[in-house]
């Protein structure tokens, strides 16, 4: 059997991004050594605040081209609160990547590995387990390039919900529900009691639901969803929603299972995908060596699964199992989860578990 080499573009980015990304490359190297006939070719690329300060372009053309031609992209985090364009908004090359590569599906799995890690009472390992799928190229982020008139007395943002993107993201959610083999249920999170865009989203969702008769479909308003996520997270299996609602609810959901350091994500398109933790550059802890790399490691596992090669799928499971094994011991935690291990030390534990 010939060896298959996967080209992975590595975009560390800003703040803790490179710290967690470097650790995931260590994990992937370990996995590579245990796989048959598969190798990884990692290439680091400049992106983010550093690049913006030097060249004025946070996502240089060479970096974008490398992302386009790679098999997958591994991304740390980007942006810093005090680095902004003249229009007042932060640089956000990860959003540019999502839009330019057509990564419509932000897949954000939420899983409780240890009952010690949830602020909720009475949930054992595995008892909080759902996936939030966020449309990632339009919604309320659609108008983000609009220029604010400095003399205006009012400001507007436009929500765009297109049939195409909605069909694709809803189908992705139903396919995930089918593959997970859990409750086999997809819940649309919307605001169809108030917004026309959401009435439309619901109409398209219902059309897609009819294509998946083996999956239960239901609807929940976004405000009630925030309540149910805290009161009764088990009511959800797969949730699908527009961009901004998904942005907000995915952080809330991360809080149910230990925080941002536990929340992986994959931005999925038809032919490309970017894997990154749901968290940001965490400037409050950047450079201290204490960032929790688990969200990044679980994102790397999602990448291996997405590469859709039997050996990579085996590697994805090795990472998931190793994380579960390490987190079974509540003493093995980084400071964000009440522990004392550094970013490198907890990764050492995961390498041992592999
Ligand atoms: N995908 C991305 O690249 C992304 C996502 C979110 C925010 N951002 C950007 O990051 C910057 C900081 O944003 P923010 O503070 O709102 O969100 P954040 O996710 O960076 O941090 C929120 C809180 O969670 C903690 N945290 C996050 N990740 C952690 C980890 N791996 N280990 C331990 N603790 C962790 C931080 O210390 C902080 O207290 C902003 O410039 C924002 O725009 C980027
Ligand atoms: C930093 C920001 C632009 C980004 C987003 O809104 O997509 C982040 O919050 C996320 O969840 O990945």
TrEMBL record:
InterPro entries per record: IsoCit/isopropylmalate_DH_CS, IsoPropMal-DH-like_dom, Isopropylmalate_DH
GO CC terms, sorted: cytosol
Cross-referenced SUPFAM superfamilies: Isocitrate/Isopropylmalate dehydrogenase-like
Known cofactor(s): Mn(2+); Mg(2+)
PROSITE patterns tied to this protein: IDH_IMDH
Ranges of residues in domain Isopropylmalate dehydrogenase-like: 7-350
Pathway annotation from the record: Amino-acid biosynthesis; L-leucine biosynthesis; L-leucine from 3-methyl-2-oxobutanoate: step 3/4
Biological-process GO terms, alphabetical: L-leucine biosynthetic process
EC assignment: 1.1.1.85
UniProt keyword annotation of Oxidoreductase present: yes
GO MF annotations in UniProt: 3-isopropylmalate dehydrogenase activity; magnesium ion binding; NAD binding
Sorted UniProt keywords: Amino-acid biosynthesis, Branched-chain amino acid biosynthesis, Leucine biosynthesis, Magnesium, Manganese, Metal-binding, NAD, Oxidoreductase
Catalytic activity from the UniProt record: (2R,3S)-3-isopropylmalate + NAD(+) = 4-methyl-2-oxopentanoate + CO2 + NADH
Pfam families per record: Iso_dh (PF00180)
Similarity comment: Belongs to the isocitrate and isopropylmalate dehydrogenases family. LeuB type 1 subfamily.
Complex formation: Homodimer.
Protein name: 3-isopropylmalate dehydrogenase
Record organism: Rubripirellula lacrimiformis
